Fold:
Amino acid sequence: MRIHDHPIQARIESLLSLSQEHADIFCSPSAWLARERYLAAHPTRIVVMKCMDGRIHIPHATRTPLGIITPFRNLGGIFHLGWPYLGEMLTETVYEAIRGGHGVLMIITYHFSRGERARGCAGFDCDSDAALAHAREIRTQAEQLFGHDHRHVYPLVCGFETDGDALLVHGDDDTRLDMSKLALTDASDLERRVTALCPDMPSDIRRDLLPLLEGNLLHVDSLRGVARKLDNEHQEWVICIGRGFDFLHLPNTALIIGPYSPDLSEPIGTAAAIIDANMKSRRIPDDGFLLLASTPYQEAGVDRARAVMKSRFLTSFASRVIHREHPKLAKRMLMRTAVVHWPSRRLELISEA
Ligand SMILES: [Zn+2]
Structure:
């Protein structure tokens, strides 16, 4: 039996044990060495703006060790860099990289399905042109913040084709590099292609983009000819709100909403509508769904206390929105509030206040 079909309590337990496993692996000497070595060889800091859709997992699709890519998730991959909290988080990430002497690769993604339009992004009513246009707007905003010369922060627009997990890299002047069209033997030619596609990309940033594309090439190739259950794409039974969910490297399990939009009720309402539809069409059992709030913290003391307060706020805020907009669904909601000790990725459940 797949995990999606288990009773809700068993699903929650398996999710929590997954987070324990993730922390154990993350803290293992080998994983620590792998990350340190990766960052030493590829010090460009990588930020990915993406949709909350559970199918979009860039570390998995690019075979990048966990903990290297900093994700920003929201409904539809819809962002505005003027949002107060998002702008602060993003510029903080950029300052930290720059003060350490590193550039930043900012990958702005949208997603679509080649096989069936309806498997596209719900945030854009499956209109991939509109999703791409929005990604380009974010790129323009990034240029306004970090410079049009792209010397230090390189905003790169990328499509993600969810049937085959292939990246579609957009260059200037409507040029594109479609990873699904390449064979494994093209790996040696990737650098030339990227240089042609993005002639102004600094060489250090290009060097650190290439492993992602090589990883994607391998991943896409490994999926060729493999039957994937594409028609049941939406089976999410968890709404995550906050940050610190990288243990959820399972496709189709959770809708992850970052705490970025000044109007959080909109993505929360949409996520609840998706869960409701999943239950109604029996893609998941209707015995319950999980609302999980999490906030990362670095240090004991005030930092942790604030994380606890923030997570509690997020749980109660999201719960209020779901009760108001989906009162029937709200009866099936189970809530968990957590903080994550970020250096170890250890998730700690906290009791309700
Ligand atoms: Zn989407």
User: Anything to note?
Assistant: The mean pLDDT is 93. The chain has two domains: 43-223, 238-352. The pocket of zinc ion is lined by residues 51, 53, 76, 111, 121-123 (CB under 6 Å).
